[in-house]
């Protein structure tokens, strides 16, 4: 039996994100919120592992009260329990402060529902895009960590060891390590299922457990919120749009079109930039 914790975050829909030209900050008003989709792939893999090995899944989210909607979606997909960690004292947290609060939350989850075997996070979030929270949690909890996981091969329940495939720039790394472990999920890990009707009905009536700063008597207040966040965003801006000239090469003969394309490339600055030899090219 496994106890799997999945960390999720409610983020602005990246397809709707806009930047205020005066303040250079994200415009969140009127922008729909969604569950960070990398986190959903972590939840899906947790569901697959529970189906195969048994156990329970607890989802945890640090965010404002409306983030309850994200947890309800996780419940509709099949999670067993959900915890919303919310308090004004947590506001303004960077990745360092966020990983601290989530690590303390996972400790409390272990005390409440039993020891944790696997922690899933997404490889990154759509709004922060740093990829730092997962490793930060692992360091604070002294967990083995496997990042950029694209496949879970399996778990040996007798030896309590897990084997995964990690995506690297130059290939795939096959790694085996002991439990407990933290995994950061890639979208290639799986295909997220649709919620079932029983799941949606359960989610409609579900109320997550809510923890505030008062529920963490040993919390170091200097490590949360703005006080615990050494990261400062000096400036943000929208990249200037550059016009690009496009020319279509018409015709049905592929060889002629390819020859035309090559001739046009030789008329650009590419040969000089890359040191191409036109004689060798022929």
Automatic annotation (TrEMBL):
Family annotation (Pfam families): ETF
Gene Ontology molecular-function annotations: electron transfer activity
Xref: InterPro entries: ET-Flavoprotein_bsu_CS, ETF_a/b_N, ETF_b, ETF_beta_N, Rossmann-like_a/b/a_fold
SMART domains from the UniProt entry: ETF
Cofactor dependency: AMP
TM spans (from-to): none
Domain Electron transfer flavoprotein alpha/beta-subunit N-terminal: 23-220
Family indicated by similarity: Belongs to the ETF beta-subunit/FixA family.
Matching PANTHER family: ELECTRON TRANSFER FLAVOPROTEIN BETA-SUBUNIT, PROTEIN FIXA
Name by which UniProt lists this protein: Electron transfer flavoprotein small subunit
Originating organism: Effusibacillus lacus
């Amino acid at each position: 039996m496994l106890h799997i914790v999945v960390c999720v975050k409610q983020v602005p829909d990246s397809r709707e994100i806009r930047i205020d030209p005066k303040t250079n900050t994200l415009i969140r008003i009127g922008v729909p919120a969604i569950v960070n989709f990398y986190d959903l792939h972590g939840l899906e893999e947790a569901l697959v592992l529970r189906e195969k090995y048994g156990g329970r899944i607890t989802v945890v989210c640090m965010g404002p009260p409306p983030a309850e909607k994200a947890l309800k979606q996780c419940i509709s997909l099949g999670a067993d329990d959900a915890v919303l960690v919310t308090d004004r004292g947590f506001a303004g947290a960077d990745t360092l402060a966020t990983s601290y609060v989530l690590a303390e939350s996972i400790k409390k989850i272990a005390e409440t529902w039993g020891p944790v075997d696997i922690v899933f996070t997404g490889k990154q979030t759509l709004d922060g895009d740093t990829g730092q929270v997962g490793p930060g949690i692992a360091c604070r909890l002294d967990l083995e960590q496997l990042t950029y996981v694209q496949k879970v091969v399996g778990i040996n329940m007798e030896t309590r060891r897990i084997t995964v495939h990690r995506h690297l720039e130059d290939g795939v790394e096959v790694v085996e390590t002991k439990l407990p472990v933290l995994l950061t999920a890639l979208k290639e890990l799986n295909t997220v299922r649709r919620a079932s009707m029983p799941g949606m009905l359960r989610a409609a009536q579900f109320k997550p457990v809510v923890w505030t700063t008062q529920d963490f008597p040993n919390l170091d207040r200097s490590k949360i919120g703005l006080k615990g966040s050494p990261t400062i965003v000096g400036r943000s801006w929208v990249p200037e749009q550059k016009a690009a000239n496009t020319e279509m090469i018409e015709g049905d003969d592929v060889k002629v079109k390819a020859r035309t394309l090559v001739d046009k490339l030789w008329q650009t600055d590419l040969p000089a930039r890359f040191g191409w030899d036109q004689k060798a090219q022929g």
